Amino acid sequence: MTKIMLNISIAVGLAVALCATPHAQAAKAAKKPAGGSHSMTGCLQKGTEANTYTLTNAEGNGPKTAEIVSTAKGVDLSAHVGHKVTITGTTVTPKAAAKAEGVKGKAEKKEEAGEHHMRVTAVTMVAATCS
Question: Does the pLDDT at position 31 exceed 50?
Answer without folding.
Answer: no
